[in-house]
């Protein structure tokens, strides 16, 4: 069968934005990248044909498919948001450095490979633009399940004849750590109890989808998850839910351009912490069942945010919200508690005229009257989104380079913004 991958976007592409206009209209949200990636890793636990719908056409998804194909699986189709993937042939246990270094979420295959093949060799991802991001909590949990783990020449080598249930407490709430251990435990011998787990919608969804395939997981969405190991799982058949970070990014796009944008195909409950902050800042936010409308109502005031695990304010929306606060009336304080180094966008925002000072994990933003367009460089996925937002509001032209970061997680961003009235194009 033909394997259809979406066109790989070129590394040298730039986004050009002539800012200052108001965004208006409707934008439809794509499937959630961070929900799709763990579900794709979970396909390793199955034999047979998996079917995923609503998958976003972003580069991290193609990277994960390359990884899964390299493990011996077969992508029969990836087109128009649908993946058909046959996991029957998975027999290779190596996730190579070339792929893991471009996408940290590749570490999600560690637990499933150990559970299915009893062996895994997964490159350590190393630090990244937002912090050191170790995998120690994933590794300790798997060791607790009986895996023998060695770190050799930049790779994690794991072995376990059959993983066994464990009671494990996460010292820090970790999203992919929770996902990795839940996946490993589904095929382990006996019961696993995980404490202080992540409650992100993506983790809850993973557990629900695994249960539909025959897993026995309880308590997801609370601090304590219990998994009763089973012998095998049926192939996955699911529909990925809409991306809450993309939703939040377009909500802020409406706010920062003093616009009136309706965001469709979204789950308002998942972005409640942002909605509250936007309302506090003076915006009107109307909630429908699967839509949100953000309307500028003549004021934008500085408000404070503190990033926290779900349901707190998402760290993945911190950079975008900070871009908004650069144009707010008065001061706002942004406290980043999840990652130790997630302020890479600040230097670029300052080059556009923003007034921001950083002290450790705190940024103090004093609102300015206007930002000015500038040549800008994207450093990571969400920092890139914040630069796009700032550029939409700025006077004059901005040219954002290294936008391969944005292509990792935002589906068709320039077309979606163009349809809302932005003067934006991609320069090849
Ligand atoms: C997930 O990353 C997301 N990625 C991130 O989204 C998101 O920013 C993050 O969760 C927090 O919400 C995916 O879902 C694919 P963590 P993850 O483990 O799981 C520390 C985006 O832009 N930690 O929850 O890697 C870690 O250093 C991306 O889409 C350990 O100390 O994040 C951090 O300080 C970026 N040891 C904190 O926990 C560990 O073993 C939370 O990180 C694991 C994590």
| Radius of gyration based on Cα positions | 21 Å
Trace the largest sheet across and list its strands: 22-23-1-24
Number of helices: 14
Number of strands: 24
Which small-molecule ligands are present, each listed once?
Answer: ligand EPZ
Measured by DSSP, the beta-strand proportion falls in 25-35%
- Quick one: biggest sheet? 4 strands, mixed
Q: Could you name the key traits of this structure?
A:
14 helices; alpha/beta; 30% helix; 4-stranded mixed sheet; 24 strands; 428 residues; binds ligand EPZ
Verbal overview:
Residues 1-9 have low confidence and may be disordered. The strands form six sheets. A four-stranded mixed sheet has the order 22-23-1-24, covered by helices on one side. The two termini are 31 Å apart. The relative contact order is 0.15. By secondary structure, it is of the alpha/beta class. The chain has 14 helices and 24 strands. The structure holds ligand EPZ. Ligand EPZ binds at residues 34, 37, 104-105, 131, 133-138, 172, 174-177, 202, 315-316, 338-339, 381-382, 409.
Please give a quick description of this structure.
By secondary structure, the protein is an alpha/beta fold. The protein has helices at about 35-40, 60-70, 95-100, 110-115, 135-145, 175-185, 200-210, 245-255, 270-280, 320-325, 345-350, 380-395, 405, 415-420; strands at about 15-20, 25-30, 50-55, 75-80, 80-85, 95, 120-125, 150, 155-160, 165-170, 190-195, 215-220, 225-230, 235-240, 260-265, 285, 290-295, 305, 330-335, 355-360, 360-365, 375, 395-400, 425.
